[in-house]
Amino acid sequence: MKLTEEQKNQILNQYEGLKNDDQTLGEVHEIIVDFCVDEYIVDLSGDEDGDLYEEFSNEVWDLLESIK
What we know:
Elements: H1 5-18, H2 25-38, H3 51-67
């Protein structure tokens, strides 16, 4: 699963708002992934075994690592 430009923008906006809080990258990652799933920024409705969630989570982590 590749992140769309819209997803990347949402993630970057979330990161900008959270990065100055005293949170680890792991905590910020978890907040952002949960937000994206809860707000339907990523559609995981067909994810029956958790593979899409894990793949999305890894993509978000890679993006955050690339900008920190």
